[in-house]
């Protein structure tokens, strides 16, 4: 029904109707996924226009951090560099994906306000734009991951499939968190600051730079941290270890519940979002 | 082209105005902690009724001019017709491909080249990559910018920017054309070209809705006219009765 040829917009007709309209927004964004991709690609290109290295500057800065922290902390903690460097490298790169997707989620609708207020583009398009942009960035930083995998010979021990599964679950979860942040930030301008503080706090509370060996398995401090599960399901298999099956389960449950919540919030606020901006 | 139509039934649009304060969490949190009485007076979002109980039926061949003072709801109606605003009451049904020429600078990135901007703007307008590449030559030629298309748009003069934006915005195939003010850009030569292109577009489009303050322009392009006054619409009248509507002001 919602196509380039036919547009129907009506007043509220009950909750069920609001959900079906939200679903239509989602379906339309899928049909126009090329647009989300174009916008994401354009964002990356335009952010680094005129720069020779482009997004690789971030890769270089991340690489430097990996090198520094990898060598220093290995010494401080008394762990071998061969063990610690790949651990930190993957931690920094994948946490970068999480922090980027969530922090930039706050700007999703605010940034798109002029487009939202004069076109009928689906709102989900802009969510995918943020997520895809961060995946494009990740593809650049993957150089670091590849580097440590080759240099430290991890390709002999790593298990790619569970890592890919972990990455997919992580992306699905990041997408709803990013969307929730987008809606909340459109309405309340304090949210971006709040989200940024939380993510800054999370990078130190999550085993990105440190090993969780001091905690017994499944300690609440780790189990209650969603970023721990995202990180460990991707990182452990790549390091040739087995990630706790519980983490995958938790991520799957989180994805279902999180999307149910976010989609409901979207269905209810969808009409208002353009007025928030 | 099948049955191109616009059908608006009993449309009411209200804008909640969220004050600067209301956007901050503190007020809303304060409401929770302090209790409803104090909060209710400080945080209730004011609503402005931009359009009220508007009815409109247009079919292929209708060229509607919208008149009314600033703030009478003309742009709001155009944006609602473009699908950006959801009605609070009533419904809007548009059949046919919509092209809204409300803001020429929509989706324009000044630091990107002319060609990149053509692509981006085309994508936003709903064209596929292939459609854009097919039209690229035509758009480039019409803009008359030649080698400048490979340069970032920020190096363009205001007139050149307007030319490019206009060329892309009007490259769309549309059945329903929504315009906020007749676009007149560039130097005299380009205005003539632009004029012809717009006429062409209007002829191809089934329906035109044009908001303008210029009575001469409306007489030239429209065959119907509607007056908005504080969000309330008059009847749709024949353009020959424009003076009546203007006199009613």
Descriptive account of the structure:
The complex is a heterodimer of chains A (277) and B (249). Chain A is an all-alpha fold. Chain A has one domain (32-43, 53-276). The mean pLDDT of chain A is 90. Chain A contains twelve helices and one strand; from the N terminus they run βαααααααααααα. Chain A has helices at residues 15-31, 33-47, 56-77, 81-105, 108-111, 113-116, 124-151, 160-187, 191-205, 220-223, 226-238, 245-276, and one strand at 6-10. Helix content of chain A is 75%, strand content 2%. The model of chain B is unreliable at 35-43 (pLDDT under 50). Chain B has two domains: 5-19 and 50-96 and 210-247, Rossmann fold, CATH 3.40.50.300; 101-209, Rossmann fold (3-Layer(aba) Sandwich). Chain B has helices at 25-34, 36-43, 74-82, 114-124, 129-143, 158-169, 188-204, 215-221, 242-247; strands at 5-17, 46-59, 63-67, 89-95, 98-101, 176-180, 207-211, 224-229, 232-233, 237-238. In chain B, a hairpin with a 2-residue loop joins strand 8 (224-229) and strand 9. With 249 residues, chain B is α/β, with parallel strands linked by helices. In chain B, helix 1 (25-34) runs antiparallel to helix 2 (36-43) and helix 5 packs across helix 6. The chains are: A mainly alpha (277), B alpha/beta (249). Chain A binds chain B through residues 4-12, 32, 34-35, 38-39, 42, 45-46, 49-50, 114-121, 187-191, 194, 270-272, 274-276, and chain B through 2, 12, 15-16, 18, 23-26, 28, 79-80, 82-98, 100, 102-103, 106-107, 109, 111-112, 116, 119-120, 123-124, 126, 128-129, 152. Strand 1 (6-10) of chain A pairs antiparallel with strand 4 of chain B, so a sheet runs across the interface.
């Amino acid at each position: 029904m919602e196509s380039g040829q036919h547009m129907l917009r009506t007043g509220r007709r009950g909750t069920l109707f609001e959900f079906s309209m939200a679903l239509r927004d989602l379906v339309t964004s899928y049909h126009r996924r090329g647009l989300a991709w174009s916008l994401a690609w354009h964002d990356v290109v335009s952010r680094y226009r005129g720069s020779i290295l482009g997004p690789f500057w971030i890769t270089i800065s991340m690489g430097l951090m990996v090198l520094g922290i990898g060598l220093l902390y290995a010494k401080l903690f008394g762990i071998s560099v061969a063990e610690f460097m790949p651990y930190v490298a993957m931690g920094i790169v994948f946490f970068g994906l999480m922090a980027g997707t969530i922090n930039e989620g706050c700007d999703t609708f605010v940034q798109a306000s002029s487009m939202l207020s004069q076109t009928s583009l689906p709102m989900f398009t802009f969510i995918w734009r943020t997520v895809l942009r961060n995946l494009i960035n990740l593809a650049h930083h993957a150089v670091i991951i590849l580097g440590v995998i080759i240099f430290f010979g991890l390709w002999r021990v790593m298990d790619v499939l569970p890592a890919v599964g972990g990455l997919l679950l992580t992306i699905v979860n990041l997408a709803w968190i990013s969307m929730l942040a987008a809606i909340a930030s459109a309405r309340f301008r304090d949210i971006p600051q709040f989200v940024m503080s939380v993510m800054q706090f999370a990078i130190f509370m999550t085993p990105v730079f440190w090993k969780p060996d001091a905690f017994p398995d499944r300690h609440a401090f780790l189990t209650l941290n969603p970023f721990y599960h995202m990180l460990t399901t991707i990182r452990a298999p790549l390091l040739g270890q087995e990630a706790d099956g519980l983490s995958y389960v938790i991520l799957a449950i989180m994805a279902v519940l999180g999307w149910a919540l976010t989609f409901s919030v979207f269905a209810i606020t969808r009409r208002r979002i353009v007025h928030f901006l | 082209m099948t049955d191109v139509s616009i059908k608006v039934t009993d449309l009411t649009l209200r804008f909640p105005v969220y004050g600067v304060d209301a956007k901050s969490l503190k007020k809303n949190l304060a409401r929770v902690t302090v209790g409803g009485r104090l909060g209710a007076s400080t945080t209730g979002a004011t609503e402005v009724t931009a359009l009220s109980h508007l009815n409109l039926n247009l079919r292929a061949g209708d060229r509607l001019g919208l008149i009314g003072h600033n703030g009478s709801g003309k742009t709001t109606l155009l944006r609602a017709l473009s699908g950006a605003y959801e009605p609070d009451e009533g419904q809007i049904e548009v059949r046919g491909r919509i092209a809204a020429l409300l803001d020429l600078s929509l989706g324009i990135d000044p630091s990107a080249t002319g060609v990149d901007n053509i692509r981006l703007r085309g994508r936003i307008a709903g064209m596929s990559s292939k459609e854009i590449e097919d039209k690229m030559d035509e758009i480039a030629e019409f803009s008359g910018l030649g080698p400048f298309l490979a340069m970032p748009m920020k190096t363009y003069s205001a007139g050149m920017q307007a030319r490019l934006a206009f060329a892309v915005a009007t490259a769309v195939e549309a059945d329903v054309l929504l315009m906020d003010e007749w676009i007149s850009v560039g130097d005299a030569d380009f205005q003539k070209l632009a004029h012809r292109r717009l006429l062409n577009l209007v002829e191809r489009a089934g329906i035109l809705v044009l908001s303008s303050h210029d009575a001469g322009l409306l007489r030239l392009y429209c065959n119907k006219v509607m007056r908005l006054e504080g969000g309330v619409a008059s009847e749709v009248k024949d353009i020959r009765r424009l003076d009546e509507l203007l006199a009613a002001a």
